[in-house]
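=== Structure Prediction Worksheet ===
Name of assembly: unnamed complex
Input type: mixed (protein and possibly other molecules)
Chain count: four
Listed entries:
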Amino acid sequence: MDKTLAKGLAVLEALVEGEGSQGVSQIARKLALSKSNTHRLLQTLSVLGYVASSDGKYRLTPKLWVLGADLISRLDVRRIAMPELEKLAEETRETVHLSVLDRDEVVYVEKIDSPQPVRAYTKIGGRAPAYCVATGKALLAFQPQTLIDRVAEHLQAYTSRTITHAQALSRELAEVRALGHAVNRGEWRDELGGIGAPIFDSHGAVIAALGISGPTSRVNATAVARFAPLVRQAARNVSRQMGATLGSSGLPE
Amino acid sequence: MDKTLAKGLAVLEALVEGEGSQGVSQIARKLALSKSNTHRLLQTLSVLGYVASSDGKYRLTPKLWVLGADLISRLDVRRIAMPELEKLAEETRETVHLSVLDRDEVVYVEKIDSPQPVRAYTKIGGRAPAYCVATGKALLAFQPQTLIDRVAEHLQAYTSRTITHAQALSRELAEVRALGHAVNRGEWRDELGGIGAPIFDSHGAVIAALGISGPTSRVNATAVARFAPLVRQAARNVSRQMGATLGSSGLPE
DNA sequence: GGTGGGCGATCCGCATTGTGGGACAGTTGC
DNA sequence: GCAACTGTCCCACAATGCGGATCGCCCACC
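=== Predicted Assembly ===
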């Protein structure tokens, strides 16, 4: 299982974690590798353009980030969803997210911050357990049962409202499928709630979810009643447009 | 020089390039690797969580992107510069960028699009030759002479106005240092101009540049005279704040 | 000014590691 | 029913990556 590759990627990850530039010994210690091994890995990464060195310290070049940015920009959803996210942000004045599923977690791919002083705080690239947040539940609800079962085996309570029983999760997801949207009432962070809806590609597979988040004080029953249709509509609009973009790759350069 | 690592990263890059999921043989052919070798690399990447497979096809997980996003978010400049970029965008009503240098190219790390219908089109993560664009020249001007010399050896003309002589570049960079800002007059794309200024960290090293871009029709001599001080001021503000943030890592989660 | 311990860089013999050909089952297209 | 693909798996061979040892350097300690 290609240990060299694993070690090399571990070095990259170590460089991402530790900010700024780091020395060979420092990285070697963190990863429990020999100094010479680490040195060679860094040299290779340097040749490949992933890291740069100056006076013995090594730091990441933007290459890794460019690679990731490229990956996401090819993810058509993001480009297509943007206008809808903006509209939703304007309508609701809450923080708006676009999320995708990675194993059993949601990853926030895009967001627009609420203009209000008290707001949900997340960062792009951030993660959360899928079964605890609105967009996550919207995504989970349409996954194969095997994945749902796997998730249901490790339900951990983050707050008093977190779903911790497999049956409860199953019921909740059924409701999501019935309603077309998911709601989170302080299940991940005590004071944070949200509404999410799934986005489908032209084949009918779920590829992402969008939603709003805000303090539970504002995202209450009345807000859910008012905003849920807007969230569903935004997701539907994106889904519809996903089907219509076959080959259009955007503006040049 | 750790060929396995190089091959593994090549596989990742190949997966980024080719959109959607790809097969083993397909990747093997593209990289001129044996099928079994490619297969093992993909398996390793799968174990490490970088790729996921379904019915024999392989695709990237968001992990790579998350890594890159993490990297950039730790780049304090971005967070600190954001408010200044917004202010600049409002003042000039042109597209605003934040760029960093990667070897001899600028990489756009952040941008705010101009509200005007005719506007500079770039994307986050996009690249341009440093010596052809405003933020690039602002960055180059403060690099070690050895790097400048290396860049000056490969001056390629993209438009009729591109700087193609090492001496001319040297003069231009001297002017950038003297004025505190750089100007691009259709040197990269014929109809695109810009103004850029360097951002320094607390040690006085250049770490990024910010600037505005727009159609040459709008970014003319008058506009340069009016906007250059604003761009310089924005960059100065960011530089000043860079020194003031030692250890403040932002809000929790 | 000496000295010890830290650093990064480099070398080289050893064996662990990754290699590619081949075999296999499954699918697609003629 | 054949042929040409695919992805997956196995295994003997040797190329590849490994780590201990060594060197030169810089900084702290006294």
